[in-house]
Protein backbone atom coordinates (compact mmCIF):
# COMPACT_ATOMS: atom_id res chain seq x y z
CA UNK A 1 0.00 0.00 0.00
CA UNK A 2 1.21 3.48 -0.88
CA UNK A 3 2.03 5.98 1.82
CA UNK A 4 -0.69 8.59 2.38
CA UNK A 5 0.26 11.84 0.69
CA UNK A 6 -0.12 14.74 3.11
CA UNK A 7 -1.83 16.68 0.34
CA UNK A 8 -4.70 14.21 0.57
CA UNK A 9 -5.35 15.06 4.19
CA UNK A 10 -7.98 17.70 4.90
CA UNK A 11 -7.24 18.67 8.48
CA UNK A 12 -10.64 20.34 8.83
CA UNK A 13 -12.71 17.34 7.74
CA UNK A 14 -13.19 15.86 11.21
CA UNK A 15 -14.08 19.32 12.52
CA UNK A 16 -16.84 19.55 9.96
CA UNK A 17 -18.21 16.19 11.09
CA UNK A 18 -18.05 17.32 14.72
CA UNK A 19 -19.98 20.50 14.00
CA UNK A 20 -22.54 18.47 12.04
CA UNK A 21 -23.31 16.57 15.25
CA UNK A 22 -20.79 13.70 15.20
CA UNK A 23 -19.22 15.21 18.28
CA UNK A 24 -17.43 12.09 19.55
CA UNK A 25 -15.85 10.90 16.31
CA UNK A 26 -12.29 11.68 17.47
CA UNK A 27 -12.73 9.30 20.40
CA UNK A 28 -12.82 6.31 17.99
CA UNK A 29 -10.41 3.61 19.17
CA UNK A 30 -10.72 1.48 16.01
CA UNK A 31 -12.06 -1.47 18.00
CA UNK A 32 -14.03 -2.67 14.96
CA UNK A 33 -17.35 -3.36 16.68
CA UNK A 34 -19.08 -1.25 14.01
CA UNK A 35 -17.77 -3.53 11.27
CA UNK A 36 -18.39 -6.71 13.25
CA UNK A 37 -22.10 -6.00 13.73
CA UNK A 38 -22.67 -4.60 10.23
CA UNK A 39 -25.00 -6.75 8.08
CA UNK A 40 -23.59 -5.15 4.94
CA UNK A 41 -19.98 -6.02 5.76
CA UNK A 42 -21.02 -9.70 6.03
CA UNK A 43 -21.42 -9.76 2.25
CA UNK A 44 -19.28 -6.92 0.88
CA UNK A 45 -15.84 -5.36 1.35
CA UNK A 46 -17.53 -2.45 3.14
CA UNK A 47 -15.85 -1.77 6.48
CA UNK A 48 -17.36 0.89 8.70
CA UNK A 49 -14.22 0.99 10.82
CA UNK A 50 -12.17 1.92 7.75
CA UNK A 51 -14.52 4.78 6.85
CA UNK A 52 -14.36 6.08 10.41
CA UNK A 53 -10.56 5.97 10.42
CA UNK A 54 -10.28 7.71 7.06
CA UNK A 55 -12.76 10.36 8.21
CA UNK A 56 -10.82 11.12 11.39
CA UNK A 57 -7.62 11.21 9.36
CA UNK A 58 -9.17 13.70 6.95
CA UNK A 59 -9.05 11.66 3.74
CA UNK A 60 -12.03 13.62 2.54
CA UNK A 61 -11.94 13.02 -1.20
CA UNK A 62 -11.29 9.31 -0.81
CA UNK A 63 -14.21 8.88 1.57
CA UNK A 64 -16.69 11.08 -0.29
CA UNK A 65 -15.99 9.59 -3.71
CA UNK A 66 -16.16 5.98 -2.54
CA UNK A 67 -19.22 3.92 -3.33
CA UNK A 68 -18.73 2.29 0.09
CA UNK A 69 -20.66 5.17 1.65
CA UNK A 70 -23.75 3.85 -0.15
CA UNK A 71 -23.51 0.22 1.03
CA UNK A 72 -24.93 1.08 4.45
CA UNK A 73 -28.61 0.23 5.00
CA UNK A 74 -28.75 2.60 8.01
CA UNK A 75 -29.81 -0.21 10.36
CA UNK A 76 -28.22 1.70 13.29
CA UNK A 77 -26.67 -1.41 14.85
CA UNK A 78 -23.19 0.18 14.82
CA UNK A 79 -24.51 3.32 16.51
CA UNK A 80 -26.19 1.22 19.20
CA UNK A 81 -23.10 -0.89 19.87
CA UNK A 82 -20.23 1.61 19.63
CA UNK A 83 -18.42 1.49 23.00
CA UNK A 84 -17.42 5.15 22.55
CA UNK A 85 -21.03 6.11 21.82
CA UNK A 86 -20.09 7.63 18.49
CA UNK A 87 -23.09 8.27 16.23
CA UNK A 88 -21.59 6.07 13.54
CA UNK A 89 -24.68 5.79 11.31
CA UNK A 90 -25.27 9.53 11.56
CA UNK A 91 -21.64 10.07 10.51
CA UNK A 92 -22.29 8.08 7.34
CA UNK A 93 -25.43 10.11 6.61
CA UNK A 94 -23.56 13.39 7.16
CA UNK A 95 -20.76 12.24 4.81
CA UNK A 96 -23.37 11.21 2.22
CA UNK A 97 -24.73 14.77 2.31
CA UNK A 98 -21.20 16.05 1.72
CA UNK A 99 -20.70 13.57 -1.12
CA UNK A 100 -23.93 14.64 -2.84
CA UNK A 101 -22.94 18.27 -2.42
CA UNK A 102 -19.70 17.44 -4.26
CA UNK A 103 -21.71 15.81 -7.04
CA UNK A 104 -21.29 12.15 -6.07
CA UNK A 105 -24.67 10.44 -6.34
CA UNK A 106 -25.77 7.06 -7.68
CA UNK A 107 -27.86 7.43 -10.86
CA UNK A 108 -30.70 5.39 -9.33
CA UNK A 109 -30.81 7.79 -6.38
CA UNK A 110 -30.97 10.77 -8.70
CA UNK A 111 -33.78 9.10 -10.60
CA UNK A 112 -35.78 8.44 -7.41
CA UNK A 113 -35.24 12.03 -6.29
CA UNK A 114 -36.70 13.27 -9.57
CA UNK A 115 -39.87 11.33 -8.80
CA UNK A 116 -40.11 13.16 -5.48
CA UNK A 117 -39.59 16.48 -7.25
CA UNK A 118 -42.33 15.71 -9.76
CA UNK A 119 -44.99 14.06 -7.58
CA UNK A 120 -44.24 14.62 -3.90
CA UNK A 121 -43.72 10.85 -3.61
CA UNK A 122 -40.47 8.88 -3.94
CA UNK A 123 -42.65 5.96 -4.98
CA UNK A 124 -45.58 7.43 -6.94
CA UNK A 125 -48.79 5.58 -7.79
CA UNK A 126 -48.95 3.48 -10.96
CA UNK A 127 -51.78 2.11 -13.06
CA UNK A 128 -51.86 -1.34 -11.41
CA UNK A 129 -52.16 0.16 -7.94
CA UNK A 130 -54.85 2.64 -8.94
CA UNK A 131 -56.84 -0.42 -9.96
CA UNK A 132 -55.91 -2.34 -6.80
CA UNK A 133 -57.02 0.59 -4.64
CA UNK A 134 -60.41 0.68 -6.32
CA UNK A 135 -60.85 -3.07 -5.97
CA UNK A 136 -60.06 -2.76 -2.26
CA UNK A 137 -62.74 -0.09 -1.87
CA UNK A 138 -60.18 2.68 -1.34
CA UNK A 139 -60.11 5.97 -3.27
CA UNK A 140 -58.33 5.48 -6.59
CA UNK A 141 -55.76 8.08 -5.53
CA UNK A 142 -54.59 8.41 -1.91
CA UNK A 143 -55.42 11.67 -0.08
CA UNK A 144 -51.84 12.92 -0.57
CA UNK A 145 -50.12 15.23 -3.05
CA UNK A 146 -51.50 12.77 -5.62
CA UNK A 147 -55.00 14.17 -5.22
CA UNK A 148 -54.24 17.70 -4.11
CA UNK A 149 -52.70 20.03 -6.67
CA UNK A 150 -52.14 22.86 -4.22
CA UNK A 151 -50.34 20.60 -1.79
CA UNK A 152 -48.07 19.40 -4.60
CA UNK A 153 -47.30 23.00 -5.53
CA UNK A 154 -46.39 23.72 -1.89
CA UNK A 155 -44.09 20.71 -1.74
CA UNK A 156 -42.41 21.71 -4.99
CA UNK A 157 -41.97 25.25 -3.69
CA UNK A 158 -40.28 23.92 -0.55
CA UNK A 159 -37.89 21.75 -2.58
CA UNK A 160 -37.03 24.74 -4.75
CA UNK A 161 -36.39 26.89 -1.72
CA UNK A 162 -34.11 24.38 0.00
CA UNK A 163 -32.10 24.00 -3.20
CA UNK A 164 -33.09 20.35 -3.70
CA UNK A 165 -34.28 20.93 -7.25
CA UNK A 166 -30.93 22.45 -8.26
CA UNK A 167 -29.02 19.77 -6.37
CA UNK A 168 -30.76 16.92 -8.20
CA UNK A 169 -31.06 18.51 -11.62
CA UNK A 170 -27.37 19.49 -11.48
CA UNK A 171 -24.66 17.73 -13.48
CA UNK A 172 -23.47 14.38 -12.13
CA UNK A 173 -19.78 13.71 -11.69
CA UNK A 174 -18.29 11.09 -13.89
CA UNK A 175 -17.92 7.69 -12.34
CA UNK A 176 -20.83 8.07 -9.95
CA UNK B 1 -62.91 -1.13 25.36
CA UNK B 2 -60.55 1.80 25.66
CA UNK B 3 -61.65 5.38 25.06
CA UNK B 4 -61.66 6.63 21.46
CA UNK B 5 -58.35 8.00 20.25
CA UNK B 6 -58.05 10.07 17.10
CA UNK B 7 -55.00 10.30 14.83
CA UNK B 8 -54.03 11.68 11.43
CA UNK B 9 -53.18 8.64 9.30
CA UNK B 10 -49.89 9.23 7.52
CA UNK B 11 -49.63 6.86 4.56
CA UNK B 12 -46.22 7.60 3.06
CA UNK B 13 -45.42 6.26 -0.41
CA UNK B 14 -45.02 2.48 -0.46
CA UNK B 15 -48.20 1.71 1.44
CA UNK B 16 -50.78 3.66 -0.63
CA UNK B 17 -48.93 3.36 -3.94
CA UNK B 18 -47.58 -0.23 -3.92
CA UNK B 19 -49.30 -2.14 -1.10
CA UNK B 20 -52.73 -0.53 -0.64
CA UNK B 21 -53.83 -3.87 0.85
CA UNK B 22 -51.88 -2.93 4.00
CA UNK B 23 -53.55 0.48 4.11
CA UNK B 24 -56.90 -1.27 3.82
CA UNK B 25 -56.14 -3.57 6.76
CA UNK B 26 -55.16 -0.59 8.94
CA UNK B 27 -58.31 1.29 8.01
CA UNK B 28 -60.47 -1.75 8.76
CA UNK B 29 -58.81 -2.98 11.96
CA UNK B 30 -57.88 0.14 13.97
CA UNK B 31 -61.45 1.49 14.33
CA UNK B 32 -62.39 -1.88 15.89
CA UNK B 33 -59.98 -1.01 18.70
CA UNK B 34 -61.42 2.44 19.28
CA UNK B 35 -58.88 4.26 17.11
CA UNK B 36 -60.37 6.87 14.82
CA UNK B 37 -58.33 7.70 11.71
CA UNK B 38 -58.49 11.00 9.89
CA UNK B 39 -56.93 11.39 6.45
CA UNK B 40 -53.93 13.70 6.32
CA UNK B 41 -54.97 15.66 3.24
CA UNK B 42 -52.10 16.80 1.03
CA UNK B 43 -49.34 14.85 2.78
CA UNK B 44 -46.21 14.04 0.78
CA UNK B 45 -43.41 11.48 1.09
CA UNK B 46 -42.24 11.59 4.74
CA UNK B 47 -39.45 11.95 3.15
CA UNK B 48 -37.51 8.71 3.42
CA UNK B 49 -34.77 8.87 6.07
CA UNK B 50 -32.19 6.66 4.35
CA UNK B 51 -32.31 8.42 1.00
CA UNK B 52 -33.58 12.01 1.15
CA UNK B 53 -31.95 12.61 4.54
CA UNK B 54 -28.77 11.15 3.07
CA UNK B 55 -28.92 13.47 0.06
CA UNK B 56 -29.92 16.76 1.63
CA UNK B 57 -30.81 17.03 5.30
CA UNK B 58 -32.43 20.50 5.14
CA UNK B 59 -34.86 19.30 2.45
CA UNK B 60 -35.66 16.18 4.47
CA UNK B 61 -36.32 18.28 7.58
CA UNK B 62 -38.47 20.87 5.80
CA UNK B 63 -40.73 18.28 4.15
CA UNK B 64 -40.97 16.21 7.35
CA UNK B 65 -41.92 19.36 9.26
CA UNK B 66 -44.63 20.16 6.69
CA UNK B 67 -46.21 16.72 7.19
CA UNK B 68 -46.01 17.08 10.97
CA UNK B 69 -47.51 20.56 10.72
CA UNK B 70 -50.47 19.29 8.68
CA UNK B 71 -51.33 16.92 11.52
CA UNK B 72 -50.64 19.52 14.19
CA UNK B 73 -52.98 21.99 12.50
CA UNK B 74 -55.65 19.27 12.32
CA UNK B 75 -55.26 18.92 16.09
CA UNK B 76 -53.88 15.39 15.92
CA UNK B 77 -50.77 13.32 16.40
CA UNK B 78 -49.61 11.33 13.39
CA UNK B 79 -50.03 7.58 13.22
CA UNK B 80 -47.96 5.68 10.65
CA UNK B 81 -47.57 2.04 9.68
CA UNK B 82 -44.11 2.37 8.16
CA UNK B 83 -40.86 2.18 10.12
CA UNK B 84 -39.16 4.56 7.69
CA UNK B 85 -41.82 7.26 8.03
CA UNK B 86 -41.79 6.69 11.79
CA UNK B 87 -38.02 7.24 11.87
CA UNK B 88 -38.29 10.41 9.84
CA UNK B 89 -40.87 11.93 12.17
CA UNK B 90 -39.14 10.86 15.40
CA UNK B 91 -35.77 12.16 14.18
CA UNK B 92 -37.18 15.35 12.65
CA UNK B 93 -38.99 16.20 15.89
CA UNK B 94 -35.80 15.62 17.84
CA UNK B 95 -33.86 17.88 15.46
CA UNK B 96 -36.24 20.83 15.69
CA UNK B 97 -36.86 20.43 19.41
CA UNK B 98 -33.14 20.37 20.23
CA UNK B 99 -31.91 22.92 17.69
CA UNK B 100 -33.80 26.24 17.83
CA UNK B 101 -31.90 27.43 14.77
CA UNK B 102 -33.18 24.53 12.68
CA UNK B 103 -36.72 25.13 13.93
CA UNK B 104 -36.49 28.80 12.93
CA UNK B 105 -35.22 27.89 9.48
CA UNK B 106 -37.97 25.32 8.92
CA UNK B 107 -40.63 27.77 10.09
CA UNK B 108 -39.31 30.38 7.69
CA UNK B 109 -39.62 27.92 4.78
CA UNK B 110 -43.08 26.72 5.82
CA UNK B 111 -44.34 30.27 6.31
CA UNK B 112 -43.85 30.83 2.58
CA UNK B 113 -46.40 28.13 1.86
CA UNK B 114 -48.73 29.37 4.58
CA UNK B 115 -48.13 26.55 7.06
CA UNK B 116 -47.66 27.19 10.78
CA UNK B 117 -45.48 24.75 12.71
CA UNK B 118 -45.05 24.61 16.47
CA UNK B 119 -43.31 21.21 16.66
CA UNK B 120 -45.71 20.23 19.44
CA UNK B 121 -47.47 17.22 17.96
CA UNK B 122 -46.13 13.69 18.16
CA UNK B 123 -45.81 10.81 15.71
CA UNK B 124 -46.63 7.25 16.70
CA UNK B 125 -46.29 3.90 15.02
CA UNK B 126 -49.40 1.74 14.62
CA UNK B 127 -47.64 -0.86 16.77
CA UNK B 128 -46.88 1.72 19.45
CA UNK B 129 -50.57 2.60 19.72
CA UNK B 130 -51.55 -1.09 19.81
CA UNK B 131 -48.89 -1.72 22.46
CA UNK B 132 -50.36 1.04 24.58
CA UNK B 133 -53.77 -0.63 24.36
CA UNK B 134 -51.93 -3.77 25.40
CA UNK B 135 -51.68 -7.40 24.31
CA UNK B 136 -54.04 -8.50 27.10
CA UNK B 137 -56.88 -6.21 26.03
CA UNK B 138 -56.37 -7.21 22.41
CA UNK B 139 -56.49 -10.88 23.36
CA UNK B 140 -59.90 -10.28 24.94
CA UNK B 141 -61.23 -9.01 21.58
CA UNK B 142 -60.04 -12.06 19.63
CA UNK B 143 -62.94 -14.22 18.46
CA UNK B 144 -61.07 -16.60 16.15
CA UNK B 145 -57.68 -17.39 17.69
CA UNK B 146 -54.98 -18.38 15.19
CA UNK B 147 -53.81 -21.40 17.13
CA UNK B 148 -51.19 -23.58 15.51
CA UNK B 149 -49.80 -20.78 13.33
CA UNK B 150 -46.01 -20.46 13.50
CA UNK B 151 -44.96 -16.85 13.02
CA UNK B 152 -41.54 -15.38 12.30
CA UNK B 153 -41.67 -11.84 13.70
CA UNK B 154 -39.69 -9.13 11.93
CA UNK B 155 -39.51 -5.85 13.88
CA UNK B 156 -37.39 -3.98 11.35
CA UNK B 157 -34.65 -1.53 12.31
CA UNK B 158 -36.20 1.91 12.58
CA UNK B 159 -39.04 0.84 14.84
CA UNK B 160 -36.38 0.21 17.49
CA UNK B 161 -33.33 2.29 16.65
CA UNK B 162 -31.81 4.71 17.49
CA UNK B 163 -33.05 3.48 20.87
CA UNK B 164 -32.45 6.82 22.62
CA UNK B 165 -35.26 8.32 20.57
CA UNK B 166 -37.75 5.46 20.79
CA UNK B 167 -40.44 4.78 23.40
CA UNK B 168 -39.55 1.15 24.12
CA UNK B 169 -37.73 -0.01 27.21
CA UNK B 170 -33.96 -0.28 26.78
CA UNK B 171 -33.13 -3.86 25.96
CA UNK B 172 -31.24 -5.91 23.41
CA UNK B 173 -34.19 -8.26 23.11
CA UNK B 174 -37.62 -6.74 22.59
CA UNK B 175 -40.83 -8.70 23.03
CA UNK B 176 -43.71 -6.23 22.59
CA UNK B 177 -44.43 -7.28 19.01
CA UNK B 178 -44.13 -10.98 19.83
CA UNK B 179 -46.68 -10.39 22.59
CA UNK B 180 -49.07 -8.66 20.18
CA UNK B 181 -48.64 -11.57 17.76
CA UNK B 182 -49.30 -14.13 20.48
CA UNK B 183 -52.42 -12.20 21.54
CA UNK B 184 -53.95 -13.45 18.27
CA UNK B 185 -53.35 -17.05 19.36
CA UNK B 186 -50.44 -17.58 16.97
CA UNK B 187 -47.01 -18.61 18.19
CA UNK B 188 -43.90 -16.44 17.72
CA UNK B 189 -41.03 -18.72 16.73
CA UNK B 190 -37.41 -17.88 17.57
CA UNK B 191 -35.08 -17.78 14.58
CA UNK B 192 -31.47 -16.91 13.90
CA UNK B 193 -30.58 -13.20 13.63
CA UNK B 194 -34.16 -12.10 14.18
CA UNK B 195 -33.09 -8.47 14.62
CA UNK B 196 -31.22 -8.34 11.34
CA UNK B 197 -32.10 -5.65 8.80
CA UNK B 198 -34.25 -6.59 5.77
CA UNK B 199 -31.81 -4.77 3.48
CA UNK B 200 -34.22 -2.30 1.91
CA UNK B 201 -33.28 0.89 3.76
CA UNK B 202 -30.55 3.46 3.44
CA UNK B 203 -30.93 3.68 -0.32
CA UNK B 204 -29.56 0.15 -0.63
CA UNK B 205 -32.61 -1.30 -2.37
CA UNK B 206 -32.68 1.56 -4.87
CA UNK B 207 -28.93 1.85 -5.35
CA UNK B 208 -27.46 -1.62 -4.70
CA UNK B 209 -30.14 -4.09 -5.77
CA UNK B 210 -28.09 -7.31 -5.57
CA UNK B 211 -26.72 -6.49 -2.12
CA UNK B 212 -30.18 -5.59 -0.88
CA UNK B 213 -31.70 -8.90 -1.99
CA UNK B 214 -28.83 -10.77 -0.36
CA UNK B 215 -29.77 -9.28 3.03
CA UNK B 216 -33.32 -10.54 2.49
CA UNK B 217 -32.05 -13.96 1.37
CA UNK B 218 -30.19 -14.46 4.64
CA UNK B 219 -33.27 -13.57 6.71
CA UNK B 220 -35.52 -15.74 4.55
CA UNK B 221 -33.14 -18.71 4.84
CA UNK B 222 -33.23 -18.36 8.62
CA UNK B 223 -37.04 -18.17 8.58
CA UNK B 224 -37.29 -21.23 6.35
CA UNK B 225 -35.00 -23.13 8.75
CA UNK B 226 -37.37 -22.22 11.60
CA UNK B 227 -40.33 -23.63 9.61
CA UNK B 228 -42.60 -20.62 9.97
CA UNK B 229 -46.01 -20.33 8.32
CA UNK B 230 -45.60 -16.60 7.69
CA UNK B 231 -43.46 -13.53 8.31
CA UNK B 232 -45.16 -10.81 10.32
CA UNK B 233 -43.88 -7.32 9.66
CA UNK B 234 -44.91 -3.79 10.65
CA UNK B 235 -43.24 -1.71 7.95
CA UNK B 236 -44.38 -1.13 4.39
CA UNK B 237 -40.80 -1.05 3.11
CA UNK B 238 -39.75 -4.29 4.87
CA UNK B 239 -43.00 -5.73 3.54
CA UNK B 240 -42.10 -4.70 -0.01
CA UNK B 241 -38.62 -6.17 0.41
CA UNK B 242 -39.84 -9.62 1.54
CA UNK B 243 -42.63 -9.68 -1.06
CA UNK B 244 -40.41 -8.68 -3.99
CA UNK B 245 -37.22 -10.53 -3.00
CA UNK B 246 -38.84 -13.98 -2.87
CA UNK B 247 -39.96 -14.30 -6.53
CA UNK B 248 -36.64 -12.76 -7.55
CA UNK B 249 -34.65 -15.31 -5.54
CA UNK B 250 -36.77 -18.13 -6.94
CA UNK B 251 -36.01 -16.86 -10.43
CA UNK B 252 -32.28 -16.67 -9.72
CA UNK B 253 -32.07 -20.09 -8.11
CA UNK B 254 -34.55 -21.78 -10.45
CA UNK B 255 -36.45 -23.09 -7.46
CA UNK B 256 -39.65 -22.54 -5.47
CA UNK B 257 -37.77 -22.37 -2.19
CA UNK B 258 -38.86 -18.86 -1.25
CA UNK B 259 -42.60 -18.76 -0.71
CA UNK B 260 -43.17 -17.57 2.84
CA UNK B 261 -46.39 -15.51 3.01
CA UNK B 262 -45.59 -11.93 4.06
CA UNK B 263 -48.30 -10.67 6.39
CA UNK B 264 -48.63 -7.22 7.92
CA UNK B 265 -49.55 -7.20 11.62
CA UNK B 266 -53.01 -5.62 11.20
CA UNK B 267 -53.86 -8.33 8.66
CA UNK B 268 -53.03 -11.02 11.21
CA UNK B 269 -54.95 -9.26 13.95
CA UNK B 270 -57.91 -8.71 11.60
CA UNK B 271 -58.15 -12.45 10.95
CA UNK B 272 -58.19 -13.15 14.68
CA UNK B 273 -60.95 -10.55 15.07
CA UNK B 274 -63.00 -12.56 12.57
CA UNK B 275 -62.67 -10.14 9.64
CA UNK B 276 -62.93 -11.56 6.10
CA UNK B 277 -59.48 -12.09 4.48
CA UNK B 278 -60.48 -10.07 1.39
CA UNK B 279 -61.46 -7.13 3.58
CA UNK B 280 -57.90 -7.25 4.92
CA UNK B 281 -56.38 -7.23 1.44
CA UNK B 282 -55.06 -10.77 1.87
CA UNK B 283 -56.05 -11.63 -1.69
CA UNK B 284 -53.62 -9.05 -3.07
CA UNK B 285 -50.19 -10.35 -2.12
CA UNK B 286 -47.19 -11.10 -4.29
CA UNK B 287 -46.32 -14.32 -2.46
CA UNK B 288 -49.39 -16.57 -2.33
CA UNK B 289 -51.15 -16.32 1.05
CA UNK B 290 -53.45 -19.29 0.39
CA UNK B 291 -51.38 -21.94 2.28
CA UNK B 292 -51.30 -19.63 5.30
CA UNK B 293 -55.03 -18.87 5.10
CA UNK B 294 -55.86 -22.56 4.79
CA UNK B 295 -53.85 -23.30 7.91
CA UNK B 296 -55.81 -20.63 9.78
CA UNK B 297 -59.01 -22.35 8.64
CA UNK B 298 -60.16 -19.34 6.59
Described by the principal axes of the CA atoms, the overall outline of chain A is elongated
- Report the average pLDDT across residues of chain B: 97
CATH topology of the largest domain in chain A: Fumarate Reductase Iron-sulfur Protein, Chain B, domain 2
What portion of residues of chain A is helical?
40-55%
Q: How many H/I helical runs of chain A?
A: 10
Number of domains of chain B: 2
Order of helices and strands of chain A: HHHHHHHHHH
Please indicate the percent range of residues of chain A in DSSP E strands (runs of 2 or more). Answer: under 5%
Q: What is the radius of gyration of chain B?
A: 19 Å
Task: Briefly note the CATH topology name of the largest domain in chain B.
Answer: Rossmann fold
The CATH homologous superfamily of the largest domain in chain A is termed Alpha-helical ferredoxin
CATH architectural category of the largest domain in chain A: Orthogonal Bundle
| Large-scale geometry of chain B | globular
In percent terms, what proportion of residues of chain B is strand?
Answer: 5-15%
Sequence-ordered SSE layout with sheet pairings:
The complex is a heterodimer of chains A (176) and B (298).
Chain A: H1 13-19, H2 33-36, H3 48-57, H4 60-65, H5 77-81, H6 88-101, H7 107-119, H8 127-135, H9 149-161, H10 164-169
Chain B: E1 5-10, H1 14-17, H2 20-29, E2 35-39, H3 52-55, H4 57-73, E3 77-80, H5 83-98, H6 100-111, E4 123-125, H7 126-133, H8 135-141, E5 150-153, H9 176-182, E6 187-188, H10 204-207, H11 209-225, E7 230-233, H12 236-253, E8 262-264, H13 265-272, H14 290-296
Parallel strand pairs in B: 1-2, 1-3, 3-4, 5-6, 5-7, 7-8
Helix pairs in contact in B: 2-13, 4-5, 4-6, 5-6, 11-12
Amino acid sequence: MDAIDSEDIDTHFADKLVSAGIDRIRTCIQCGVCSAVCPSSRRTAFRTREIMRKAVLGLKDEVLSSEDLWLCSTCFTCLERCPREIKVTDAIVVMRNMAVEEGYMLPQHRKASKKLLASGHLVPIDRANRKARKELGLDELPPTTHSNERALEDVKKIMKKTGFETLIEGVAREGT
Amino acid sequence: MTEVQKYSLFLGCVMPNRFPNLEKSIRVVLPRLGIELEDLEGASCCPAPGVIRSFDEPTWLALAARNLALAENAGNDIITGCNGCYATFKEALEEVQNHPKKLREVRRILKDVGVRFKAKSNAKHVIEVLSEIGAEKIRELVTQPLSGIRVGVHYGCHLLKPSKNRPWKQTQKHSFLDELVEATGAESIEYKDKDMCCGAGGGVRAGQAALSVDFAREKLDNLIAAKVDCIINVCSFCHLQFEMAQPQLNGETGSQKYEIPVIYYTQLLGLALGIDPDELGLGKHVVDTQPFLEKTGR
